[in-house]
Amino acid sequence: MPTTRFAPYAPQLLSVLRIMAGLLFLAHGTQKLLGFPMGGGAPAAMSLGWFAGVIELITGTLIALGLFTRPAAFLASGTMAFAYFIGHAPRDTYPVNNGGDAAILFCFVFLYLAAAGAGPWSVDAARRR
């Protein structure tokens, strides 16, 4: 059965999903705040873009490490919902046209991580042991 072949690896794959999503989110923060990789100028301090970059940098790092994963993922999920409705939805009805498909995907992956936790390969799991 192909549906059960990978079931034993579900906890580890949860950790892989968390690590990759966290690293990708962290990259958005480094691009906004540090200009890496190939970003423009940093947003003005205390602007919406600056706050988004700070949240992406901090929560992306925490999520990638699996440290305080549930609250970090919940905050990141809400940030992406806000980003979608403020920055993307006004441009067009369809996410593929308004550039918001990544924001929606991040939102729901982080919402899932807020519910599911970090998985076995995480600082959170090591702290519980």
TrEMBL record:
It is found in: Cell membrane. It is a multi-pass membrane protein. InterPro entries: DoxX, DoxX-like_oxidoreductase. Belongs to the DoxX family. Keywords: Cell membrane, Membrane, Transmembrane, Transmembrane helix. This is DoxX family protein. Pfam families: DoxX. The chain crosses the membrane at residues 45-65, 72-90, 102-123. It comes from Falsiroseomonas frigidaquae. It comes from the Bacteria.
